[in-house]
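for the writeup, i need someone to sanity check this before i put it in the appendix. the sequnce is what the collaborator sent (i think, or maybe the updated version? ugh). structure was predicted straight from it, no edits. if anything looks off just tell me and ill rerun, i have time this weekend
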Amino acid sequence: MGKLSGIKVIDLSLFLPGPMLTMMMADHGAEVIKVEPPTGDPARAMEPVEAGQSVWFRNLNRGKQALALDLKSDEGRERLWQLLADADVMIEGFRPGVMKRLGFDYDAVAAKNPRIVYCSVSAFGQEGEMAHHPAHDLAVQALSGFLSVNDGPDGMPVVPGVPSADMAAGLNGLSAVLMALIGREKSGKGDYVDIAMFDAMLPWCAHIAGEAIQGGNSPTSRTQRSLGGAAFYNVYRTADGLHVVLGGREVKFAKSLLTALDRTDLLPLAELDAGEMQQALTDFLRETFATKSRDQWVAWFADKDVAFSPVLDFREALDQDFVREKGLLVEAGGSHQIAPAFRFRSDEKWQPSDAPELSE
């Protein structure tokens, strides 16, 4: 029995943040009913398709039920009220004001079900001057400052490889919902949670933007220790045009590597501030890594205590032995699913479920 068995969730969200939140609940036993428009969640049509379903949709909506409702119709609204009557949680991801116009804002729902934990997920929150500004992940990352340090050597920001604002909103939403459920056990009442992608993303800058947080200058990639300004926290090109990283700035790692390379004279540079003061060390490592292929470096580092990794593409990453060993990619019924990131020892071994087909 999952940790959330007995919890009923009504999920009106689409695409990524909300569905990820509710899938994590479904993975651990919650009953999740996904309410979709008659045309379905657009993610259903996103390629590639495997075993008749979108890989994206399945990996964000497995273990749920799905129901198509037209919430502009009397019949659709009545059916949603029936679902909400004994629900524990409601998740919605519409633009601010939409649920109120439909008659399902928090005040209306809580009036009929005071124990409901109601979570709204949006780009900038339900109130304020930005509340109605349209935005997906990229725009939120741009406005929160993160895109400015997601740049190449020429300083040109590039589209991030990870939808961090979406993911941060889903994770914060899950945490807030679970806290509200715990609080309900004490008070007997539910609560309202306003999750903004911008708000969820911003705390992630604490380790890189300390100076800006205290009113000073913004960080730049070429000088910041965690963004490419440090020799031992950097990406290096190898002889075959691939890449490796050094991912640990501790002096013990620098000493281990520079001793093996017979360049302990450079060790003092590893202790200096990031940026120009470490440039000679960075240049040496850049020249050194260019002398062997990526896989040759992997073999060379095998017996050395250095925070080193090859840069893998997703095919290589998913094919690693330890991914199979930990059961992180599961094949069942002709489809592949990424396992939950957290599992409990006391639970039965996790088995993937299909994502639901859309029913009326």
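The first helix runs from residue 17 to 27. The mean pLDDT is 95.
thx in advance!!
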